[in-house]
Amino acid sequence: MGVSDSGPVPPAPGELNYGSYLELDRILESQHPRSAPAEHDEMLFIVIHQAYELWFKQILHEFDKVERDLSSNDLYGAIHTFKRLRTIVKVLVEQMDILETMTPMSFTSFRDRLDTSSGFQSVQYRIFEFRLGYKREPMMRYFDESHHGHDRLVAAWEGRTIGDHFLEFLRQRGVRIPAELLDRDLQQPFPANESVQRGLLHLYRSEPSVAILLELMTDFDEGVQEWRYRHVKLVERTIGQKKGTGGSMGVEFLKKSLFLPAFPDLWAMRHEL
User: Fold this and answer.
1) With 60 as the cut, is the pLDDT of residue 243 above it?
2) Could you tell me the domains of the chain?
3) β-strand 7-8 against 3-4: which pairing, if any?
4) Is the dihedral of CA 96, 91, 69, 267 positive or negative?
C-alpha cells in the first residue's frame, strides 16, 4: 500500500491486504452466541475459547519444531523454541484472568445453550497432552473418526513424546540412556530415571548453555502445571462440583492431571543443584 499526500492509497480490487491476508472476515464472523435474548458474557466465553484453540494450534506447531531441534542436537534452536513455548503458556494463564471476570451467574445464564459441547472435546488440547506424555487410553473413546483431527490424535497417541526426543538430545550429549527408556511402551507414562538424572546433573555443571535449555524446559513445564491449576480453580469457582457440559466429569476429573510433569527428571534432581 502506498501513501499519498491525502493519506493511504486503498488497495486495488483483489490485491492482498491486512484483512484478506489474515482472513479477518471469516474469523470475525465466527462468533455465534446461542442465547436468546443474548446474554452479554456469552461473546466473551466464545472469543476466549477460540483464542485458546488458536494458541493450541501454535503450540503444536512449535512442538513439531522443538522435536526436530532436540533430535538433531540443535541446542540453540531448542532454546529459542522453548523460550517461545514458555511465553505462550504465560499468555494462556493470563487469559484466565479475563475469563474470571465472568461470574458464576453469568455463565449459568447461557450454560444450557452449550448443549453437548465441552472443552473436554478439544482435539488439539488432547494432542497437546499426549505429546507431553500424559496419555490416557479412555480419552480415545471420546474421539471417533468423525472428529476433525482424529488422524492427528491417533498419531500423537501412538507416537513419541517430546520427552522421548529429549532423551535423544541427551544421548547425543553423552548421557547414558537405559534401554528400558528407549524401548518403552509409548502409551505408558514417562518415568523418572536416576541414570538420566546423573547425566543431567553433569550437564548442568559442565555445559552452561545446556543448563539454559534445561531451565527453560523446567519453566515451560511449570507453566503448564500452573495453567492446569488455574483451569481447575476457574471451573470450581464457576460450577462447583457439577458435572461439566457435554457430560464431562468436571472438577474431580481435572484434578487428576494437576502437577504431572512432562519432564520428571528435571524435577526429581532439583535438590542436587
Assistant:
1) no
2) 39-110+119-272 (1.20.58.480)
3) antiparallel
4) negative
